[in-house]
């Protein structure tokens, strides 16, 4: 299953990648969960598909968006890690993924993970972008840890390559945005897609995590599109 492609102008120098844009579960895969959970963060990065569409239009950028839920397979994980096909998420068991036979696991990798990352490889080869943009959203708090406070409006994530992060964080702070420097998640721990396609090529990337309650409706998406488009462009331009 290939990702959704938004075609842009290669001259933008940008490729936007959204690993968790979809909550789609194919009819032949039974997760064994309450369907209501598919509307929650455990299944999808809320708001990212619409925000990506707006940013791609504003920046004339191409974009690739996942078309399957991370509960089926988490595309932002390495192929060989246990969490690639999660057995539980945010305190909820996923019975359909427990004790998955090796051939079924391999089948999901072949059906979803490999085509997704192959499509990113092709897009980078064709577009030769100056910078990747990785777009995610995060919850104000985890259901499994409701006392944990996450005051940031946006997080900028990175592993070893800090070039885009160091350019973007001052721009976000100057705009009055409460910005997490490798918070609420650390790219030094979880950065699989950008490790593979950015750091593996020496290609700068800007890893963005927007708090999901801020982009949960059209007004919020419009506001954050207006905030982020010039910051993404400014980050790209500062990289030379």
UniProtKB/TrEMBL annotation:
Which Gene3D superfamilies does the record match to this protein? Zn-dependent exopeptidases
Q: Which domain of life is it from?
A: Bacteria
Q: What is this protein called?
A: N-formylglutamate amidohydrolase
Give the organism the record lists. Answer: Sphingomonas colocasiae
């Amino acid at each position: 299953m290939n990702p959704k492609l938004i075609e842009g102008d290669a001259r933008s120098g940008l490729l936007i990648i959204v690993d968790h844009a979809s909550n789609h579960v194919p009819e032949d895969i039974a997760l064994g969960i309450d369907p209501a959970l598919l509307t929650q963060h455990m299944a999808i990065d809320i708001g990212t598909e619409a925000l990506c569409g707006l940013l791609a239009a504003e920046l004339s950028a191409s974009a690739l968006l996942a078309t399957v839920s991370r509960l089926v397979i988490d595309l932002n994980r390495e192929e060989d890690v246990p969490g690639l096909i999660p057995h539980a998420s945010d305190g909820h068991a996923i019975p359909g993924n427990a004790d998955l036979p090796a051939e079924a696991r391999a089948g999901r990798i072949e059906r979803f993970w490999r085509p997704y990352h192959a499509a990113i490889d092709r897009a980078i080869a064709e577009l030769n972008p100056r910078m990747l943009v990785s777009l995610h959203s995060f919850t104000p708090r985890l259901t499994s840890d409701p006392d944990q406070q996450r005051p940031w409006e946006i997080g900028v994530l990175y592993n070893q390559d800090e070039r885009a992060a160091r350019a973007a964080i001052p721009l976000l702070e100057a705009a009055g945005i409460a910005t997490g420097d490798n918070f609420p998640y650390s790219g030094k721990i979880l950065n699989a897609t950008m490790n593979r396609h950015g750091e593996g090529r020496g290609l700068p990337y800007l890893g963005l995590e927007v708090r999901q309650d801020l982009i949960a409706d059209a007004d919020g998406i419009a506001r954050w599109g207006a905030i982020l488009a010039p910051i993404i462009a400014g980050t790209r331009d500062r990289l030379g």
